[in-house]
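Think of the structure tokens as a kind of shorthand, similar to the way a musician reads notation: each symbol stands for something richer, in this case the local conformation of the backbone. In the example below we present two proteins back to back. Begin with the first one, reading the sequence and then the tokens, and try to describe in your own words what changes along the chain.
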Amino acid sequence: MPQFPTIRHRRLRLNDRVRRLVRENHLSVNDLIYPVFATYGQGVRREVTSMPGVYNLSIDLLIEDLKNIEELGIPGIMVFGVPEQKDEVGSGAYDPEGIVQQAVRAIKKAYPEMLVITDVCLCEYTSHGHCGLIKGDTVENDTTLDLLAQTALSHVQAGADMVAPSDMMDGRVAAIRARLDAEGYTNVPIMAYSAKYASAYYGPFREAAGSTPQFGDRKTYQMDPANGDEALRETLQDIEEGADIVMVKPALAYMDIIRRVKDQFNYPVAAYNVSGEYSMVKAAAQLGWIDEKKIVLETLTGLKRAGADMLITYHAPEVANWLKEG
């Protein structure tokens, strides 16, 4: 192979137009999914203290805010619920009049074309804060599956376009797929949280959703951050059970996992740019230590380069505006 000075890589970096022509990865508004938190009441806009710019919103104000999301061309949102009451079995998760179900109906009425994805889990709704039913100090896997399937069905009946189980119970994708198919919802996709790690990056989200475990932790069902091969086994199982999109969560410290999942399965991959990743950038930007716009765009482009097809991020409205500005 010819060497320098015949080969000069800098020739293709000399100006912006040449760089644009040879750019390998492109960040687009079409890549974005925006997470939102719906809560009860009227006129409620409660900022999450550890996530500047992120709010728990009553449905009326959520509908108002989503007008901007629609106008920016962001394809979809992911809806999380913040209930008024919790119990041992997380009944608010699958209540037809639960907060997510009410929010979905209102969103689809106001914005029929908006892609509405719902998070399917019990943790926000259980008094103990775990993602499944409890027996003693153990999170029960098999008895939880029916409630997860019931939750997913109630979301779809309310109008959700896609469901995203985040609980990490074994077999939950198959249980949800079977329930949806049995009820005639064969065309509703499942976005599975396939490689979801027991991560310290979730702290601010737990404030937003009020989902901190009241005892123990989630290490018996979420993955060990030290493991990579296990992520491929988890992802393969979800695909075999009927997942249409697979997810890696968190994103920034797991770019190697995103790349491995994409290379191994060539399946649609979502990367969740989680609350802790968002909050670190916001905090450093507020102190003037970093250029927020440049850092966010570089990070999300890096996730695309790693193999992500879609990006779930709290930065979505800002990113959409930045991209619009050029």
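Once you have a description of the first chain, move to the second and do the same.
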Amino acid sequence: MIGNQVKKCRLDRGLSLSELAENAGVAKSYLSSIERNIQSNPSIHFLEKISLILNVPIETLLYGKSASTNTCDLDDEWVNLAREAKESGISQEQFREFLEFNRWRKDQSKS
């Protein structure tokens, strides 16, 4: 679970719960509830803040492994494009819908 990974990475870095919360600019109580797996679906924004302070890829918090073992390497342009989409207000659900539509359209053109 994400909470276990956050706690493991925090302890590996020698940070207290208070230090991580303060440095990342998140509520200590919310971070605590994540680590205790009371809250199990943190936002990508929250994970970005935490991963930045812990100096680990978000994938490490999500999957417990390094990004290179879980996902293909993305060049900077793809990363920037995804970041720009997020900052423009596109939700994860909207992005998923776009991908599904694009797959459907691609399949239709093959038929």
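Compare your description with these statements about the second chain. Residues 77 and 83 are 10 Å apart (CA to CA).
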